[in-house]
UniProtKB/TrEMBL annotation:
InterPro entries: CoA-bd, NAD(P)-bd_dom_sf. It comes from Syntrophobotulus glycolicus (strain DSM 8271 / FlGlyR). Residues 13-105 form the CoA-binding domain. Signal peptide: none annotated. SUPFAM superfamilies: NAD(P)-binding Rossmann-fold domains (SSF51735). This is CoA-binding domain protein. SMART domains: CoA_binding.
Amino acid sequence: MELTSLEQEKNNFLQLRKIAVVGASNNRGKYGNIVFRKLKDKGYEVYGLNPHTDTIEGDKCYHNFCDLPSNVEGAVFVVPPEATQEAVKKAYESGIRSFWMQPGAEENQAINFCSQNGASCISGSCILVALNK
């Protein structure tokens, strides 16, 4: 059976090894923390991104994209849609070209930006579901 383009994009994203979680949180009940922990549990090198905290789950948390190591390959967005557009642009400027917008983080202008700039963008799909397959 042939994969749809969305399924192929999801598979491609999950092949990355170094992923930033935009909106990572120390609150274990929030999706920013759940996504962060699940990626770590699955063996990914995960970088929390949140301007309001210095650590997530005992790991260094980065305040902005320019502070991230230059080899980060993808970013998962777990922020309100109004924050997604600017965050996608900053991630793109830092060299990241693969984006996963969690349900509730999707923003049409950010999706269009990815499309216009040749970046991979997944929306309408939860990374937690994809990681559990």
